[in-house]
Amino acid sequence: MISVQNLSVEFSAKSLFDNISYVINRRDRIALVGKNGAGKSTMLKIIAGLQHPTSGQVAVPQDTTIGYLPQQMKLDDSTTVVEEVRKAFSHVDKMQQRLDRMNAELAGRTDYESPDYARLIDDIADLSERLAMEQSENMEAEMEKTLIGLGFLRSDFNRLTAEFSGGWRMRIELAKLLLQRPDVLLLDEPTNHLDIESIQWLEQFLATKANAVVLVSHDRAFIDNVTNRTIEISCGKIYDYSVNYSKFVELRRERVEQQMRAYQNQQKEIADTEAFIERFRYKATKAVQVQSRMKQLAKIERIEVDEVDTSHLNLRFPPAPRSGDYPVIADNVGKAYGDHQVFDHATFTIKRGEKVAFVGKNGEGKSTLVKCIMNEIPFTGSLKIGHNVKIGYFAQNQAQLLDEDITVFDTIDRVAVGDIRTKIRDILGAFMFGGEASDKKVKVLSGGEKTRLAMIRLLLEPVNLLILDEPTNHLDMATKDILKQAIKDFTGTVIVVSHDREFLDGLVEKVYEFGGGQVRECLGGIYEFLEKKKLASLQELERNAPTPAKTEKSAPAASPLPQTSAATSPQATQPRKLSYAEQRERDKILRKASRKVEEAEAEISAIEADIASIEADIAAGKVDGDIFDRHARRNRDLETAMSLWELASQELDELRGRLA
């Protein structure tokens, strides 16, 4: 379907791609993998037509549509969510306008027997059929299903896009792309700002409804569940495997091992032959054998071992200065935005040297509590930072805050002070920004390279409390493993906000679960937490949002400070009693949602009865001019009604879970 032919790309005389070729077929699910900076995002931009290669070409058939989701995008801030998403169907309006023009032209034609007239008739019939197919899918229902699948509430639909964070704006753009149903979908880190529930929905959508997909992602579970082909970009070359990522890792290791054995055997054979030639070169009695061996040596097709990218991230946090015994003490901490209570009565103590995780669904307050700890926003309750605590904070949008118009070296030079300025080159080299890479402008860096550059700020001065909010976004899999080991070796205290179960496994010894307006403590690692909750995955945790009535009492924090213990705070273990007005408002919302489900069920029953009546007439031979059209139309109406009923039922279940 799309053919990449002899593609080469050079930046500052350095080759990024060197004469590579491959084909994207219909229904391919391709994972582009490789180290940060290998050229994955560049490859997507070239296929999308947003960037031109140095040489070679990308051949795209004329009628093939391409949808591209970049890591960062800009939306029109003057539109609502639903208005922005409705732009996905602009092609339907264009088709209708074109059909109207063709019909107007037909009305003015009198050359009924000409080939042009017949061709115009065929074009109108073809366009009418395509337009009918597009309109039969019910755009409004499709928009609702897609937006709700990506985590939006109905109440979000009429909010301006300007009110949403970068992650939610990315979801709006993703919704537009998915609704357009392009022939080839190019996705650059689509899971970075999705919670696990939305990732599962996206996996299902790509598996069942998408055509060809080419994606860049560092979420191993996601690419394993979605892809059936893996293309590795390494040192300017590509290696194409018709398997998912996990199988690719095995096959790649076997290929390199086989290649190395063959290379070593051939080198031994060459050495033996050269030794024979050198030994008997000047002996007349061996002249024939020497000439034979020399010809044999010249004919050998030399085996080359694939060049291995040996550049390696050397990440180690400085030794942590000693802090007080309790770096963070929270007592009845709460945060609300207007009438929305994000969480309340959060009571816990984090001891020196502990490594803890904040987990839960997006919007439940993980990053909000981090901002409270950083004293960036006001809150209720008491939150004490311990003696001599020095915080190193990595925010979700840390990489986006970099000045893109200066170089890598200048980025660090402007914030470094004292003796550290003499070691900037060494630090940059340890983070794979050595040599010419340190003189690159920030704007040309990949997402992972920007994240690494932002991470260097944490190394400029020793800290003893690391707070990392989604630190693995944009990092390749090898770098994630290195970061994980560096955090494990860090002697200070660590708070990690992450959805990445694999990253958290073996790293944290305590989990704080955010959900239902509460913060609950669970001692043990991430898998112990899941086992205690009797959940198979964090995805189930988010689907079964905990409520005060169903949740087990959490073990109190082991702390010698009685005033901070969860056991002494009845509010931390008892749900807040609703006022009479709040109770009435809750009941009103539930009644409205229940009525919507009942109305949808009544509509389905009416349509099914109508269809049954039409089918009875057909069976009895009562066939009039448009009976089959009415039958097809009512079946489409039934599909739409079923979709609306599904959405209404899902919304009712979510409301019951939140308001129980």
Describe it:
44% of the residues lie in helices and 17% in strands. The chain has 660 residues and is an alpha/beta fold. A six-stranded mixed beta sheet has the order 5-6-7-3-8-9, sandwiched between helices. A six-stranded mixed beta sheet has the order 14-15-16-12-17-18, with helices on both faces. Strands 2-1-4 form a three-stranded antiparallel beta sheet, with no helix packed on it. Helix 5 runs antiparallel to helix 6 (166-180). The radius of gyration is 31 Å and the shape is globular. Mean pLDDT is 80; it is low at 546-576.
Give structural attributes.
single chain, 660 residues, alpha/beta, six-stranded mixed sheet, 18 strands, 44% helix, globular
Concise overview:
By secondary structure, this protein is an alpha/beta fold.
Biggest pleated-sheet summary:
6 strands, mixed
- The secondary-structure class comes to alpha/beta
Distance between the termini: 51 Å
**Based on CA inertia axes, which overall geometry fits?**
globular
Tell me the helix content.
40-55%
What integer value in Å does the Rg equal?
31 Å
Question: In percent, how much strand structure appears in the residues?
Answer: 15-25%
